[in-house]
User: Which sequence fits this backbone?
């Protein structure tokens, strides 16, 4: 029973493959730009844009997946959560067969200002799978649960206390590298969006409108400025 808390962690989906680093000097530091003056697309326009992005980004993501991985299911399923109460979100998960699934909520699609934003987000989510972030997160969660649960058992805590320690350890373990995972996905997502014919720099302006998580200890996402910087640096390398 005590391992039920760990099994629950294993169901986590990545929100968020390294691309070789350039041997030259890094791009200069940039600040997060001011929010764009545009506005969300009309509902019918947004739906058509999403369908177009899915058609063009999916094959590129599958090509990158096949190129950078071995023995991994690269047949992406892209779906929309149409529930009206579903918050604005996009995430990658795995179905029971191991097939990668990219889910956009309808509210996120309606909040996009242009196709480049949708393409960048889709590339980012596809990159999570290519980088193996879900299994890596699961391994980190198990390690955290084992370590903290073991320490709790050594101190003489009862079953409830050990289970609580495992739960905390699994949570800490699953978030240990989550910021790095997001930046990895931003980097490869930039490559995927660009190769699919979109402008990642325009797409990354999405970060100017979403809440900034800051640099919290054990936070799940890095600061928005760091993510935008990653896109700028990646584009400089690709164009260089």
Assistant:
């Amino acid at each position: 029973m005590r391992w039920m808390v760990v099994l629950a962690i294993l169901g986590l989906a990545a929100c968020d493959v390294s691309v070789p680093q350039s041997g030259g000097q890094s791009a200069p530091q940039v600040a997060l730009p001011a929010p764009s003056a545009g506005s969300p697309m009309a509902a019918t326009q947004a739906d058509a844009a999403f369908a177009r992005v899915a058609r063009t980004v999916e094959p590129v993501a599958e090509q990158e997946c096949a190129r950078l991985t071995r023995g991994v299911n690269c047949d992406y399923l892209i779906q929309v959560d149409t529930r009206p109460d579903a918050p604005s979100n996009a995430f990658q998960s795995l179905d029971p067969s191991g097939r990668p699934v990219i889910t956009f909520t309808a509210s996120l699609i309606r909040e996009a200002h242009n196709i480049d934003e949708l393409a960048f987000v889709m590339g980012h989510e596809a990159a999570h799978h290519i980088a193996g972030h879900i299994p890596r997160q699961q391994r980190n969660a198990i390690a955290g649960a084992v370590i903290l649960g073991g320490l709790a058992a050594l101190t003489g805590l009862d079953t409830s206390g050990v289970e609580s320690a495992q739960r905390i350890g699994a949570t800490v373990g699953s978030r240990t590298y989550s910021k790095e995972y997001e930046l990895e996905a931003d980097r490869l997502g930039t490559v995927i969006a660009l190769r699919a014919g979109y402008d990642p720099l325009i797409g990354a302006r999405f970060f100017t409108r979403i809440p900034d998580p800051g640099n919290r200890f054990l936070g799940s996402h890095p600061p928005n400025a760091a993510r935008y910087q990653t896109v700028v640096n990646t584009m400089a390398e690709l164009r260089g």
The chain has one domain: 4-10+40-239. Strands lie at 77-81, 90-94, 100-105. Residues 1-14, 16-28 have pLDDT under 50 and may be disordered. The chain has nine helices and three strands.
